[in-house]
Amino acid sequence: MSSSNTDNPSMLHGHAAYVAGAAKEAIGTYVSSDPSWKEAAAETKDGAVAEMRAAKEQSQDQPGKNETVGKVEEKLGGAVGCEGMVGEGKDRQ
């Protein structure tokens, strides 16, 4: 099952879903020999990337909101150590 949220895409939800996919991948790699973990991880991560792309496209149409979201994204990215979020946040400002 994909975790993509195409009706109302959210960059934050997309990042959270990607982290969940990475956790599934780690379980599939280090804990369980069941290949379904890795398959679920790939599907979750793909859905998350699609949601982040959709959220980025949607936010480009909203300049004022875009700058505010960029500042928040940069700060959150720095707090959790996600260089991609920091870069995206800076690009939005």
- What's the multimeric state? single chain
Looking at the structure, what is the overall shape? elongated
Termini Cα gap: 34 Å
Q: What value does the average pLDDT take?
A: 83
Note the run of SSEs as H and E. Answer: HHHH
Low-pLDDT windows of residues:
none
Percent helix among the residues? over 70%
Q: How much β-strand is present in the residues?
A: under 5%
Major pleated sheet: none
- Based on secondary structure, the structural category is mainly alpha
Contiguous helical run count: 4
Number of strands: 0
Query: What is the CA-atom radius of gyration, in angstroms?
Result: 14 Å
What can you tell me about this protein's structure?
This protein has 93 residues and is mostly helical. It has helices spanning 11-31, 35-59, 63-80, 83-92. The protein starts with 10 loop residues before the first helix and ends with a helix.
What's the arrangement of secondary structure elements?
Elements: H1 11-31, H2 35-59, H3 63-80, H4 83-92
Short description:
By secondary structure, this protein is mainly α.
Give short descriptive properties of this protein:
80% helix; 0% strand
